[in-house]
Structure formats: structure tokens, C-alpha cells
Design goal:
Elements lengths: L1 E3 L5 E3 L4 H4 L3 H4 L11 H5 L3 H13 L4 H36 L4
Antiparallel strand pairs: 1-2
Length: 103
């Protein structure tokens, strides 16, 4: 299955390890202990890391069909939407700074 967005980029859901393997825990090693993170560690997490952790935890609670066909594409498209909004805001702020050199 592939997932497409408004920019026609495709995401091959079969390439995601959690969808290829029956037991995800055997094939994934986390670099951090997410169950005992400090507040500072949580604040320093990148968006992709947060989405990956969310998807991992969600995958243990949902059936495979719903996860693969609904939850995963939603998170991927939501991430891309945030990315588009973020870059648009960045360019808007850049133009504002060019207009007002005193800032």
C-alpha cells in the first residue's frame, strides 16, 4: 500500500519495519529509555522522534489493519502539513525581517 499527499510524494507503507515484522520488539532498538525520561529530555525531543514514539505505542494498541490504513497515513500527512505550515511561517518571518532591517 502507498500513501500519497497533495505534493504527490509516495510513502511505501511496506518499507516500515513495524509493518513487515510480526514482533516489532525483536527488530527495533530504541536509543533512549522513553519510559524514564527527564522533563528536559522530553523538551529536547525532535518532532520526528515524537511521531515515531507515538506510532510505536499506538501500534501496540491497535489492530494491524486500522494502524496501517488509518493511523499511519494520518500521522504521515499530519507531519507533512506541519512541515508545510512551518516553512510558510519561516518565509513569512524572513520577509518581515527584510522589510524591517531594524528588527
Amino acid at each position: 500500500m502507498t500513501c500519497t499527499n497533495s505534493q504527490s510524494s509516495k510513502v511505501d507503507l511496506g518499507q516500515i519495519p513495524s509493518l513487515r515484522y510480526k514482533n516489532v520488539d525483536e527488530h527495533m532498538q530504541w536509543m533512549r529509555d522513553y519510559n524514564s525520561m527527564t522533563e528536559q529530555d522530553r523538551k529536547e525531543m525532535k518532532a520526528d522522534e515524537i511521531f515515531a514514539l507515538y506510532l510505536y505505542r499506538l501500534s501496540t494498541r491497535l489492530n494491524k489493519h486500522y494502524f496501517k490504513n488509518t493511523a499511519l497515513p494520518f500521522v504521515i500527512l499530519f507531519r507533512e502539513c506541519l512541515n508545510e505550515y512551518g516553512w510558510a511561517k519561516h518565509y513569512e518571518n524572513e520577509k518581515e525581517l527584510e522589510k524591517n532591517k531594524n528588527l
